[in-house]
Structures are given as C-alpha cells and as structure tokens.
Amino acid sequence: AAGVIQSPRHLIKEKRETATLKCYPIPRHDTVYWYQQGPGQDPQFLISFYEKMQSDKGSIPDRFSAQQFSDYHSELNMSSLELGDSALYFCASSFRGEAQQYFGPGTRLTVL
Amino acid sequence: GESVGLHLPTLSVQEGDNSIINCAYSNSASDYFIWYKQESGKGPQFIIDIRSNMDKRQGQRVTVLLNKTVKHLSLQIAATQPGDSAVYFCAENRGRNNDMRFGAGTRLTVKP
Question: Percent of chain A, pLDDT > 70?
C-alpha cells in the first residue's frame, strides 16, 4: 500500500540558510500534519492543513511557513535556520480529518 | 515489566514476558488516543487506538486501557518479542482539528 512520502530524507544546511521539506500524502488523503522531533524527544505538532487551508497551528516558529497545494502535497519552508532546528521532521496524513494519522519516514535536517 | 509514570524513559523486559507501558494525558477534553511505535530512524507507526467512550480495546497481542478518572492510558503487550523493541508514544487528540499531542516516549528493550 502507498505510504506518505517525504523528501529529501536527509538535508544538511548551514546557519541562516533556508530549507524546504516536501510531503506527499497517501492518495485520497486530504489532511496533512507536520511534526518536529528533536533528539530523544517526542514529536511536537507544528501545523496542519485540510483541503489546502491551514486547520491548526502548534509550536511552529515564525521563521517557518507551510502550505498545501492543489494536489494535496505540502511543503514546509524554513528560513534563517538555527542550530536548534536540527531535528527529524515528520509529515502525517489522514482522510477527511479522521483522527488516525499515517506518518512518513521523516526528513532528518542537520544545521551546521 | 511495567513503566511507572510519565517520565520513566526506559523499560527492559525478557522475551516472552508481558510489557505494560503507562502514559498520563493532560487534557480531560481529549476524546481519542493512539499508541504509536517508533523504531530508530523511522516515523511513528500506529499500533492501536481507543475512544474516550471505551475503557479497553484489544488488538493482536496488544491491549489499551483507558482510565478517564485519573487521565491514564496504558499499553499492554503480551508475549513481548525482540521485534517489539522500540520507543512507544501515547498521543491524545485534543478535539481540535485532530492534531495529536504526543506524550513522552518510553523505550522498550526486549532481552532474548
């Protein structure tokens, strides 16, 4: 069965650079969620989109923005990167706002 | 073996024993809970869920118990196997657009 696809899987950036993470939800899923997981920590909810509209916002820094496109894929844009942004970034998707979310494999971002 | 409290990060059990992982949630309005399993370098994987109108739900080798009075959730794994070694997270749906808030994970190690 198709799963959530995230790209790139690994990304290395320097401080103050920008990064764009992409998420392709499971086909027919219309809701996308972004999470940040620091080393040894639990996933922290950042932001979610339903039908291309932002539906909820968590602990997303102002330096980050995200959007969902007409094909339901989503991009997380991160600017002025800081060392503390180094983390695993997970995308999850669900269908019509169903509570069960399916997670992608994550993008590991390293900021040097 | 059993984890006690929200902040015990590790649980070590012998193969074949039963495991109990505990979780305390914070929001009495949460109406849906999920247990996730996360293996190293991978995204959280759905194990089992339970709605707030239930006290117990059973899956294959796993049982989730919900005590709403004390806002406590537990995951029981029967006949624990080496493949069960992972970090386990409980997540609560706070009822707002289905964003899941994760609790601190418990690392389960199964000794052969």
Answer: 98
